[in-house]
Amino acid sequence: MNPPFYLRESPTEDLLDLLDETVLGTSGARYRHLDIRNRVFSADHPLFLTLERSSKVLANVTFCRRGSEWYIRFFAFQGALQASGESHSSTKRQGLLKKELSRYFNEKLTGRLGEEQIGSFYAYIDPKNERSKWMSENFGFRIAGHLVTQSFSRIYPKKSKKLRRIEDWNAVSSQIRQNFSSHRHYNEAQISTPPFYVLLDEQGEQIAGAHIMTVRWQIERLPGRYGAVLTRLIPFLPLLRKLIKPKDHEFIVPDCVWSKENDPDVLQELFSAILHEEKLYLMLWWTDQEEDLYKSVKNKVHWGIFHKLVGAAPVDVVVLENEGKEIASPFFVKGWDMV
How far is the C-alpha of 102 from the C-alpha of 92, rounded, in Å? Predict the structure, then answer.
């Protein structure tokens, strides 16, 4: 690539600064990652495409190169370049970025760069987020599936004697592969890093399990119709201020979630026990809406007060690929990809 565009396999300090400052979301929820630097360095086979001026990063697209399917992560604009900007310079740079990205997508999908041709690019976008939709609509991505952001909260999470914390990937890998290896986008980067939690029956057999991450956000606005008001009121509401701390909100993100026979009571016991063990009060679980487990339990689990306040928000899976390729579902969703 030619200046002002650059491709690197490691992030620069200016890029890290941009990601630190980026507020995600537009209408609805608005939040900023507080642990983004750690997250960047755990990316799998990353490639950072940046637009720069005077050594300052104005825009970034990070690709996680996962075989023939590349995941788009950390799509960030410097304020003056955001899709809502109306200045002439902003529009001009947006046009430059669009042209260069379009060329890059096309050349990677057709193999014109002299490298191995890839099969597809994919990303997850909030259907209400105009900045994310800009990427999807301008480059020909199509909606291939739908995820759901399902919260699970407990003011007083319950302990379970069946719960075990596991630090060894080999102790859970066969169960995870059995449940998810046939899903599209399955790969084991990030998910093979502990901790894992399982529930054991009386014979010591695993009956449910999950891989987890702990995440920190600064929340500017909660989702939902009354999100802005609720965010301001939380410090004065005794129960909610225990559940949500907008300035430094810590929560659990589970993935690779399974429950024997898709039992909702077992899943609820697992989630509550994990919260108790981790001394936290909220989970955000991203999963394909067509996942058998989710379809079986979504109307049977008591998801908690946070779910009653904000509901279950949809997320679109968007894909750019060569024409004629069929989209397989369900999609494998890693917590790392969403946070």
Answer: 15
